[in-house]
Amino acid sequence: xxxxxxxxxxxxxxxxxxxxxxxxxxxxxxxxxxxxxxxxxxxxxxxxxxxxxxxxxxxxxxxxxxxxxxxxxxxxxxxxxxxxxxxxxxxxx
Length: 93
Known about the structure:
The protein is mostly beta strands. Helices cover 0% and strands 57% of the residues.
């Protein structure tokens, strides 16, 4: 059993949901499917492991280098490293 990543919703309105995600070492989100297109803004450098339907993938986050994904993505996100990983997720309604 892994610890859970810590979400803090900063904005939730008719246009966007903005959530800060904090991943202590070993933490995970649990399996989930994204209901909206979204943008991730890394606040720290770090590597995350993504358990997906297609297998295991690695996501290399670079502080300040944003990326986007489309709705429908299903995965479990895990911090395998020794340090905390933080990003802000902006879901577009």
